[in-house]
Structure formats: structure tokens, C-alpha cells
Amino acid sequence: MVDLAASPEGAEAAIVVDRFCKSYNGRRVVDELSFSVRRGEVFALLGPNGAGKTTTVETLEGYRRPDGGSVRVLGLDPIRDAARLKPLIGVMLQQDGLYPMLRPREVLRLFAGYYRQPQPIDQLLERVGIDPGTKTICRRLSGGQKRRLALALALVGNPQLLFLDEPTAGMDPQARLATWEIIRDLKAQGVTILLTTHLMDEAERLADRVAIIDHGRLIALDTPERLTGVDSATVLRFVAPAGLDSRALAALPGVQRAEEVRPGSYLLETAPQSMPAVLADLTAWLRDRGITLTELRVGHGSLEELFLRLTGSEMRE
Ligand SMILES: Nc1ncnc2c1ncn2[C@@H]1O[C@H](COP(=O)(O)OP(=O)(O)OP(=O)(O)O)[C@@H](O)[C@H]1O
């Protein structure tokens, strides 16, 4: 295996996990896990319940000690160098029970006190969609508001590296979109983000690279485009009215095979280099016949399909 810590990328990397192992009561839950996260990258860690994501993230945050292998964060050891590391990272915690009787502004002010150059509190609250003047105490905030306050707490110290553990769990669609916007803005500012999520579309939309872990082992790591095969796609699927002429579709230039797999669900096969032209020809063919398609997908399938294929569909813990 490559020694990531010693590689040039390792020197540049925001996070290096190198053959990291962790056991609880003799049961190995993280098994020789290695990956690195580049500076400025949004990196998503996916895996079924119990796969070892939280164990890994909490080790990177300095809350757990590796049994074997090593982890480096911004070039530092999260436990030994905790005092130097803490001001550089932001952590969005899973549990929202912090200071239940305080108002959001008060909790944020308390946290801001730990940092040398905190963000302006009211601006930050507005950015995450919480009214800075709200009199509601934390305990009475909605689930989504609690998550947004947790995000503000993670951001208050202007971190270089942000750990987001299921950042949009429990949020309504509007709050989720707003949070994705914040994450994109942070990336544009050069903040490195390690994200864990169970939402495949969240990973697909936000992450530069996605790692899938299962039983504490890395089973896939790549860009969402490469994982879902958009880059090297030879298959195009679309949904349109049933009964289109498959033979005419197969006769489009570059199409090797055309089939109506179910009524109204079509599949075309082509060489990867022909895909852009086939897409254009297909839509022109449909336009000439006054047909509107309702779905169009290029590639093997979604990240979710890949995830289920790799990790199986049985329920975990
Ligand atoms: N402190 C602990 N003591 C004993 N077992 C633990 C401890 N922490 C985690 N585990 C076990 O280690 C395994 C990995 O847990 P972990 O929380 O890292 O998984 P996860 O991928 O984050 O799961 P989820 O998606 O459910 O949050 C699980 O089987 C869990 O029960």
C-alpha cells in the first residue's frame, strides 16, 4: 500500500488516514482504513449504519485514539497537537443538546469566546437562517433549527477544515438547499470539508470525491461522476410515451442497441465517445416527432444504486 503520509500529496493533504484500525471489546470496527483529503476539497464519507464513519471522524477530531495506523489533520496529530489543532477546525456535532436553556445568540457568543478571531455573531445567525433576535431557547428550537445552530457553532471560529456529520438530517427542503449553498460558499472560500451523510444526492451534489466504507474498510473512492460512470458511460436511459420505434432509435448514428425495457422506459447503448452526439440526436429525433421525455439518465445509475450494489440492501444495526 502507498504510504500516503510520505507522498507529496500527503504533505499537501488536509487529512491523511493511513492504515487506521479501531476495535471495541475485541471487535474490529475500522480495519486498515486509508484515504487522504486534499486541501480545499469537499470529501464525503458514506457507509451503512455501523460502518465506522463516526469512529473515523471522531478520531480525526481527537476524541478517539487509533489502535493501529495513524491519522494526521492539517499536518498535526489530533490528540498530541490538540491545542494547536482545535482553533483550526470546526465540528458540527450530531447531538444538539448543548445549553438547552440559552438562546441561540447566547450559545454562539459563548463559543465565539474560545476563538481569537470569531465571526460576527448576528451575521452568522442570519447566514444560517436563524433570527438573531429570537427569544426561543435552544431546547424549543425545531430539529432543523438545531442543526442550523450546530452549523453556526462549527463556523464561528473561521475554521480551515470543517467536519460535518449528517449536516442536513431533519431539515426541510428549503433549509437543506440553504445549507448546501453555505457549504458551496465555504468551499469557494477554500475551506476543506469532510462530510458524512446518508443522503446520496447530498454527496453527489456537494462532494468532489466520495469514499464508501463498509465494515470499517474502504470499498470505493472516486469522484461522483466516475463512481456513477457518467464519464465513461455507454448506456443512456430515458422515459417517454410507450411504443416508440426501437428500430428507428437503433438507427440513430452511434447507437449500438436500442430497447424498450418496460413500456415507456428505453435504453440505448453507445460507445463512450459517441454519447454527446447520441444525446443531441435523440433529443432532435424526439423534437421532430413532438415527443417530450420525462427522464433522461446517462451512466450506470445513481450513486444510491452503486451504494446498494456495493454494500448490499440488508438493514444494518
Ligand atoms: N464507544 C463504543 N464502544 C463500543 N462499540 C462502539 C463504540 N462506538 C461505536 N461502536 C460500534 O462500532 C461500530 C461502528 O460505529 P460508528 O458509529 O463508527 O458507525 P457509523 O458508520 O458512524 O454508523 P451510523 O451511520 O449509524 O452513524 C458500530 O458497530 C458501533 O456499535
Give a quick precis of the structure.
Keywords: ATP-binding, Cell membrane, Membrane, Nucleotide-binding, Translocase, Transport. With 317 residues, the chain is α/β, with parallel strands linked by helices.
What does this structure look like?
The chain has helices at residues 8-12, 53-60, 82-85, 104-112, 121-127, 143-155, 173-188, 200-206, 224-228, 246-250, 275-288, 303-311, and strands spanning 15-24, 27-37, 42-46, 68-73, 89-92, 161-165, 192-196, 209-214, 217-222, 235-239, 255-262, 265-270, 295-298. The strands form three sheets. It has a six-stranded mixed β-sheet, with helices on both faces. Residues 1-10 have low confidence and may be disordered. With 317 residues, the chain is an alpha/beta fold. The chain has two domains: 38-63 and 75-224, 3-Layer(aba) Sandwich (Rossmann fold), CATH 3.40.50.300; 235-299, 2-Layer Sandwich (Alpha-Beta Plaits), CATH 3.30.70. The protein is globular and about 70 Å long. The protein binds adenosine-5'-triphosphate (ATP). Adenosine-5'-triphosphate (ATP) is lined by residues 24, 29, 47, 49-55, 317.
